[in-house]
Amino acid sequence: MGLTDYRNKHTEKEKARASDLMALLPDDSRGAVLDIGAGDGWLSLMLAERFDKVTVLDLKKPSIEHPRIQCVKGDATKLDFGKDEFDLVFCVEVIEHIPSKQLIKACSELERVAKKYILIGVPFRQDIRVGRTKCSTCGKRNPPWGHVNSFDEHRLKQLFSLCDAQEISFVGEEKECTNALSEFLMDFAGNPYGAYDQEELCIHCGAKLKEPPQRNILQKIATKLAFYIKNIQQPFHRPHSIWIHILFEKRKA
Length: 253
Prior knowledge:
CATH topology: Rossmann fold
Largest sheet: 7 strands, mixed
Oligomer: single chain
Shape: elongated
Helix content: 25-40%
């Protein structure tokens, strides 16, 4: 499922997420902003209404037409920009995709190129066991949508240790979660209900994820048991926010 299709399917949630992010922008928003992981530029165009210059960066060079937008190809773990080059670094729905071994480096790079502010948006306490897939090429399991990290407020503050959290907001609500036994049973069943419509490729071999083959009788039984056990626990789990957004302000050296 592409970004446009996803937004069309989840219009109200996506509008709420975008509205909250724009509301968190500093009052003195002008100057230059770096938008990391810009994708199709949906949020980049909103930033262009507030900033004089918007540099949009992704692993593949974005294609966004706007007089104040410059598109570049780049990697968050190794940014080709100078220290304090941007008044704001805007990084939304990105760091949950970065492998743990590179995560600290990426956050350090964001702090290095930010002159004053960093605005971070990520899924909040996401249970990345839910919706995971099995690659038909390499046989390894993948978290949903390539989300290899899960975050809460404390972990984000640790990652951006050179900054202070100025504003924190939470958007949306869900109860999606699983447990170790349901996880084991779903793995045995071949993860038949994973997020196979995602654009993200297998994080292990880079192959496109495909729907799994027909399950045998034991796998079908395991699937039903997994759902049954998961549903038993649902009433005992409190709803939590879907996203967390934090505006960080970089401390003066």
